[in-house]
Amino acid sequence: MLKTKLKNKTDIKIFILYLLSNVGYPLQYAQINDISVQDNFVGSIEFAECFSELLETGNVEECAPEPDAEGDVPCYRITQQGLSVAAALESDILGFIRTKSLKSALRYLSFNRKGCYVHTKVTQRPDGKFDLKCSVAEPDSPTMELSVTVDNRYQLNRMRHHFEENPETVYRSILALLSGEADYLL
Q1: Cβ 129 vs Cβ 151: under 8 Å
Q2: DSSP letters spanning 95-120
Q3: What element of type H or E holds 28?
Q4: CB under 8 Å to 144, separation ≥6 — which residues?
Q5: Rounded Cα–Cα distance for residues 148 and 150 (Å)
Q6: What is the pLDDT of residue 33?
Q7: Spans of the chain, pLDDT less than 70
């Protein structure tokens, strides 16, 4: 699979505006950062610099937190000027980058907006192995349940930690594998 990283600041700004224009609602800074860097087309430092410049130039603006948001964390939205820039220049970004990153961003935001919670459970077996059960659930129903038998405690702790720290990535990866979108890994 072709991998590329956006290095030009103008391209990174267009990329951020493209994502914001297609999401269509205000996001917190951390959410914008996450959707921008998750597919490794943009680095965290480059994102921070470019996002700051987008704020300074009036392409993105701060707005009040959403009514159902916890705490007083500000949100950001694309301005009309930013929408115009995104519409005019989005074709400067390679099509596969736009498609992949928007798909990933929408999945990530959907996961978070649904109020999903993550749970892990460990059971030691008589043979010394461990059963690790990882689950993601929405408030009213399970979204994913995965059980894995693990040979040792070290492997168990690594898997458990990775799942708890990155449940959305694990969930997206499993969906990609099951749907055939990530068969390049096989």
Answers
A1: yes
A2: HHHHHHHHHHHHHHHHHHHTT-EEEE
A3: strand 27-28
A4: 134, 135, 136, 171, 174
A5: 6
A6: 93
A7: 1-3, 66-71, 182-186
SS3 79: coil
Q: Which positions ≥6 away from 18 have C-beta within 8 Å?
A: 86, 90, 93, 98, 102
The amino acid sitting at 112 is N
Residue with token string 């690594």: 158
Give the distance from CA 130 to its chain's centroid. Answer: 30
* The two three-digit tokens of residue 89, written as one number: 């220049």
Q: Which amino acid is at 46?
A: E
**pLDDT at residue number 110:** 74
Per-residue pLDDT, 2: 46
Q: Which amino acid is at 180?
A: G
